[in-house]
Amino acid sequence: MSPFLPRSHPYRKHSENFRAVSAGLTQAERFHKEAIRRGDDPATEFAARVHHMMVGLMAEAALRKISTDPAGFNARERTLLGQERSQISRWKRAVEFAFRRHHAIPIHLEVDATTTNAAVAVQFATITSLLENDLAEVIEDRNKIAHAQWVWLLNNTETAFTGRAAPPLNYKAIDRRARMITNIAHVINDLVVSERTFQRDFQQHYNAILNLQQDLAGSDFPAFVAELRRSRRPIT
């Protein structure tokens, strides 16, 4: 963050919000671990929901920080982003705007292999897929938890029930989603702010995401529980 940026600048305030939410996520992780260690099932179920919701809040705070970075979008682009009705739509538009700016693709043309080179077109499709298949799920889950759909799910207009809610995810499943979202946010922040940094670090972040995707169900959770209950070290 530039030291010359006014203290009143939205980027500074969104950065502070992001830091506060990230600190809250750390506290939710600790609370979740401690409930698991005690073998307190009701507390663990509640902690899992809070932990999962905090991952979604972190994603929301990250997008606001990225979109107000003075090294990124211009005022018109920020206005257009703000007009998108959903979180996932704003993320996708942020990616689209950044690719268009870096590669001089007019707004009336698609971002694909006909308007840019094949490698860039693949990157655009890859990031869009991550948003649609991974980030969207986290945002949707956050909304269900925040809107008290803990046992029964409602339709979009909240006029009818659509089925039972899934049980809370385990700690490892939530933690992997948090780390995946962090890597996705890094990719998009680099893309928005610096094409050179994006190209330099893209594969590293993408490989980390692929590794996390291999076990989003958290199949190693039983071993994690056993280790927590054996350990006498403070929860961190």
Describe this structure in words.
- The protein has one domain (10-230).
- It is 69% helix and 3% strand.
- It has helices at residues 10-38, 41-67, 75-83, 87-103, 118-146, 171-193, 195-213, 221-230; strands spanning 152-154, 161-164.
- Strands 1-2 form a two-stranded antiparallel ribbon.
Short summary of the structure?
The protein is an all-alpha fold. It is 69% helix and 3% strand.
Give the biggest beta sheet: 2 strands, antiparallel
CA radius of gyration is 19 Å
- N- to C-terminal separation? 28 Å
Q: How many domains would you count in the coordinates?
A: 1
- Compressed to H and E, one letter per element, the order equals HHHHHEEHHH
Overall pLDDT, averaged? 94
Q: Helix count, per DSSP? A: 8
**What is the molecular shape?**
globular
Total number of strands: 2
Give helix % range.
55-70%
Query: Hey, roughly how much beta strand do the residues contain?
Result: under 5%
**By helix and strand content, what is the structural category?**
mainly alpha
Strand order of the largest sheet: 1-2
Q: Spans with pLDDT under 50 lasting ≥5 residues? A: none
Helix and strand layout, with pairings?
Blueprint: H1 10-38, H2 41-67, H3 75-83, H4 87-103, H5 118-146, E1 152-154, E2 161-164, H6 171-193, H7 195-213, H8 221-230
Antiparallel strand pairs: 1-2
